[in-house]
Design brief:
Immunoglobulin-like; elongated; FN3_dom; FN3_sf; 2 helices; mainly beta; 4-stranded antiparallel beta sheet; signal; Fibronectin type-III domain-containing protein; FN3_IL27B_N; binds 2-acetamido-2-deoxy-beta-D-glucopyranose; 2 domains
Length: 263
């Protein structure tokens, strides 16, 4: 693979020298050219992709995602395979996107606010066996070389639902209570086969200190918060988790800010 890379670079250099009339040189084989725009860019070998895999839809799908490589490594393409130990190698087809590949607005929001905003690469793995160890191999390839990221997991270990959506909070009339309602994350496929549980967290500030209470887990998609104080501001969030506690809880939903009426 490395030799192949060197060979491609050699021919890129020859091509650059032949096709451009001026100012092109080949230092250490590290200069490539885009003939149409005559823009010179320095190409580097690919770095190992920082791959994160999780199942927002147990047991049907696993998503693997990694950031777009820096400009200096492009064009880079990826070969993504997964297999059982000593088993047949299956391939998934990575594609770059700035949108969440499954229907969940919250997921897209987190993406927009991740440390590397913009495009990420995604690969969707389907038809996985339960309680079975898979080896994932994501190989980054560009004209200067290739590097593989390998990881092992069972789908049960990487379950992580998306947060609930449409969280609303209402004051229950003539009481010091709040009614919180939400909808399950749309990306979770089958609520009959594998139900979700939820937790509700509410926070408030008193004399400069933040306090919080977390309720749950429970199956219902609404909850009454009792014992609140008039005039106080509460921040309410909900998260979801697989019914039997597989994997991780979802992230918390974005906070909803409510002020209790002052009597
Ligand atoms: C982005 O996320 C960080 C940590 O997760 C948080 O502190 C920050 O407020 C967020 N920014 C926006 C614009 O939501
Ligand atoms: C990972 O995939 C690459 C590209 O298909 C392949 O060359 C490499 O041998 C694989 N590595 C392992 C450990 O399977
Ligand atoms: C959330 O609210 C929007 C707008 O009211 C609605 O279109 C959508 O179906 C709701 N999602 C769920 C999962 O209930
Ligand atoms: C909640 O709302 C109140 C009143 O609108 C505002 O003063 C406060 O900063 C908000 N808190 C947060 C954490 O958004």
């Amino acid at each position: 693979m490395f030799q192949q890379g060197l060979c491609v670079v050699f021919w890129l250099c020859v091509y650059a020298l032949v096709s451009l009339h001026s100012g092109v040189f080949c230092s250490n084989g590290m200069v490539t050219t885009v003939p149409s725009g005559k823009i010179k860019t320095y190409l580097e070998p690919p770095s190992r992709p920082d791959v994160h895999c999780w199942s927002p839809s147990y047991p049907f799908k696993v998503l693997c995602s990694w950031p777009e490589p820096p400009q200096s490594q492009r064009p880079t393409h990826y070969i993504a395979t997964y297999s059982l130990k000593d088993g047949e190698i299956q391939q998934c087809h990575p594609y770059p996107t700035s949108m969440s590949p499954l229907p969940s607005p919250e997921l897209s929001l987190q993406r927009a606010n991740s440390s590397s905003p913009g495009t990420r690469w995604f690969c969707i793995l389907e038809g996985l066996k339960l309680y079975t160890t898979y080896q994932l191999n994501i190989t980054a390839v560009n004209p200067l070389g290739s590097v593989s990221h390998l990881q092992l997991w069972t789908i049960e270990d990487i379950v992580k639902p998306d947060p609930p959506v449409n969280v609303t909070v209402q004051v229950v009339p003539r009481t010091l209570k709040l009614l919180v309602r939400w909808a399950p994350p749309p990306s979770w496929s089958d609520h009959e086969l594998v139900p979700l549980n939820y937790r509700v967290r509410y926070q408030w500030e008193k004399e400069g200190t933040f306090h919080d209470i977390t309720l749950g887990p429970f199956k219902e998609t609404e909850r009454v918060l009792p014992g609140l104080l008039p005039g106080r501001v509460y921040l309410v969030q909900v998260c979801s988790m697989e019914y039997f506690g597989l994997g991780q809880n979802s992230d918390w939903s974005p906070p909803v800010n409510v002020t209790m009426p002052a009597d």
